[in-house]
Amino acid sequence: MSAVPIEPDVLPGAAQLDGLSRVALPVGVNAVETVNMHVLADGDTVTLVDCGVWRPDLPDGGLAAVEAGLEAAGYALRDVARIIVTHAHIDHYGLAGRLMEVTGAELTMHALTDLDCEKYRHPDTARARRRDTYADHGVSETESTDLADHLTRWLPYLHSVVEASRRFRGGEELVIGGDRWDVVHTPGHSLGHVCLWSPARRVLLSGDHLLPSITPPVSFERGFDADPLRSYLDSLRLIADLGPRLVYPGHGRPFGDVAGRIEAILRNKLRRLDSVRRAIHDQPSSVTELADRLIAKAVLAHQRQLAISETLAHVAYLRWCGVVERRTRPDGVYEWYATGNGPLEVGELLTRS
Question: Is pLDDT at 32 greater than 80 in this prediction?
Answer without folding.
Answer: yes
